[in-house]
Amino acid sequence: MSESFRQTYSLDSNGEAQVTGKSLDQKTNAEPSAAPVHRQGGAPSAVRVTVNSETGATTFESGAQRSSANAKTGPSATEAQAINKFGVPVGLDRAELDDVVTIPGKGDSSLRAWITMGEVRPRRDGGFELVNPLPSNPAAAKTQQEPNKPAALPAPAADPRDAVGIPGTPADVDAFQTALVAKTPMAFEGVITSIVKGAEPNWSAIAEQHRAEDPKAFAAAGEKAHAAYIASGQAALKNVGVVAFEEFESWARSQGDDADTAVRDLVSNKSVGRLQELGRKFVAQSNQKIASMLEAQGADVKIERGKVYISRKSLGLADVPARGDFGADRYMSFEAARAAGHITVE
Asked: How is the beta sheet containing 307-311 ordered, strand by strand?
């Protein structure tokens, strides 16, 4: 039977190896050593050297290497992890809806809440997965992305008339938002995403992630905040000519990151500049579409001051005669003609 002869060495102050112990792999003929183990900087400096008596192979292992090999690893910085009801860590592929899931950089919440916020989705072959997988090397990924990061768009120049009649958010809504951003910033991101999609945020799930003491009161405060955001946004859009809000929302979602930026600016910075800029773009495209549709029917159409006008003659109406300092009115706005029933849009 082969035996491995093992000697343990430590380094003295001159860097010389000194034998501190001998042993066979079966613990026979062990000779304890009284020689001290030298330490450098407070850490053991013993080096284990194992010599195989058959092959002559020699391996070296420092105390630091042994400590590192036996050290327990903490939660992964690149993978989401769930803790089941028994307190056992499991992967997303085996997680259940009520398990607590930790997503690095985003926090922890129940799997059900993460699904509601669009961060996790079911897999076709069972289990769950992240909607946006985390990079295997976050530091490298960040370094690689930063050079290509687009510069922030400057806010459009403010027109005092654009701010007329826009209601501000109440103080309690501002306080609610401040607390939400400070404690659970990712929940706030979920609110922004929901508003951009035209959906009511799931305040019950957000209350769970926020660990609200009174979930019902939290949800009520969230609904009030959402209503305040909508009121401000619609008033701002109306000032630049948007009247069909549902059509605008559907169109805005096709504009890439512009809608997200506009909503974020409205909610976070109480600024309507970017939202109104998006509204003007929508109105301009809508006006051109309406004008082209009417012209295809042979109507006399013009676009002025952000509105579509159609000649009264095209509608079978007489011109409004001149009165005093006002000249004859030969055109009617599209909105007025539609409201009066002269034009029907299906």
From this structure: 301-304, 307-311, 331-333
pLDDT tens string 259-314: 888 988 888 888 888 999 999 999 988 888 888 888 888 888 888 877 888 888 88
Distance CA 115, CA 97 (A): 9
Split at pLDDT 50, 70, 90, the class of 335 is: confident
pTM of the full structure: 0.51
Specify the pLDDT at position 221. 94
